[in-house]
Every structure is written in structure tokens, then in C-alpha cells.
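Quiz preparation item.
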């Protein structure tokens, strides 16, 4: 292998986009979604990760900007990877964090120029309001929260397949430790 100047080597590595979102629920288990002005569909509260920002900091910033709330950013629930598609020429890695359960008395301060509304929806309805490529994050995040184990969803793998892979890997590790 030939030695390459680090600046050249790094410049030639593949790049990707990163975003972070918040799973926020109410006591009934309904999922909070926001309706962006500039899209036809709903979304988790969240957005893009800046170049010098950790994903969990991006989640906190986006929740503050979109909802006017400062919430603790809890466990990483879902890592979702999507290949380049359509006008997005780079892969996208999305991180969903557990931002807890709200009591229902909180008042949201939505930015008028960005969001038209926020609503708590039962998980099945939340999945219907989200784009097809994102809807699977609802059940994955809720499942990951209940199991206290993050879920990796490469290119919209179904929750059942992701769960089998996680269970299989955990089982393989246990078998290796037992032998």
C-alpha cells in the first residue's frame, strides 16, 4: 500500500449526511410529531447534524428550536442508514434519541416560519403520517425504549428483521461466552 498524505486520504473518504430526531411520548404512549411548513408529511422533532456537532447535541438543539423545550437527551434508540436516493447524493445516517415522556401540560413554542403544528399520535397513526422510508422508526424506537437496547435499521429493514439480527447476535455472543 502506498502512503497517502492525510489531507488527501481524508478528502477522498466517502461522506454522508447525518440527522437526529427525538422520540417524545405522552403518558398514553402517543408519539409527538411536528408538521414542517416545507414538506407534505409530518416528522419527528429533529433535523440535521452540523459539521462540528455531536448527534445528541443536534437533537437537543433541534428540540429547543422546534418546540421551545429544553429536554434531557436520553439513550440512543435507533440508528437508521439510508443509501443515496433521488436528489440526495450521499447516504444518510439518522439517530433517534429518547427524549422522555411529557406530562401533557407543556406548551410548545413552534417557529412560525418552520412548523405549522405539533401533535401526539398513537404509534400506528404516527407511522401513517410519516414518509414510508421513515415510518419504521416509530415502532423501532418504541421497541428499543422498552428493551433498553438500540436498534440498527440499515436501509429501512423491518423491525422484525432488525430484532432477529439483534437477538441472533446477542445469542451468538452468549454461546461464544459459554463455550
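Solution:
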Amino acid at each position: 500500500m502506498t502512503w497517502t498524505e492525510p489531507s488527501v486520504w481524508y478528502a477522498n473518504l466517502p461522506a454522508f449526511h447525518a440527522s437526529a430526531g427525538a422520540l417524545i411520548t405522552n403518558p398514553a404512549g402517543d408519539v409527538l410529531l411536528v408538521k414542517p411548513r416545507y414538506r407534505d408529511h409530518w416528522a419527528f422533532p429533529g433535523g440535521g447534524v452540523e459539521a462540528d456537532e455531536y448527534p445528541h447535541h443536534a437533537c437537543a438543539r433541534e428540540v429547543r428550536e422546534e418546540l421551545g423545550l429544553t429536554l434531557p437527551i436520553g439513550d440512543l434508540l435507533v440508528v437508521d442508514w439510508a443509501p443515496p436516493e433521488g436528489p440526495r447524493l450521499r447516504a444518510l445516517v439518522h439517530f433517534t434519541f429518547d427524549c422522555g415522556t411529557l406530562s401533557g401540560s407543556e406548551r410548545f413554542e413552534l417557529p412560525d416560519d418552520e412548523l405549522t403544528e405539533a401533535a401526539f399520535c398513537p404509534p400506528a397513526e404516527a407511522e401513517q403520517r410519516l414518509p414510508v422510508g421513515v415510518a419504521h422508526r416509530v415502532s423501532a424506537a418504541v421497541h428499543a425504549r422498552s428493551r433498553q437496547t438500540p436498534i440498527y435499521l440499515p436501509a429501512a429493514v423491518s423491525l422484525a428483521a432488525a430484532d432477529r439480527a439483534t437477538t441472533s447476535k446477542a445469542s451468538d455472543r452468549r454461546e461464544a461466552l459459554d463455550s
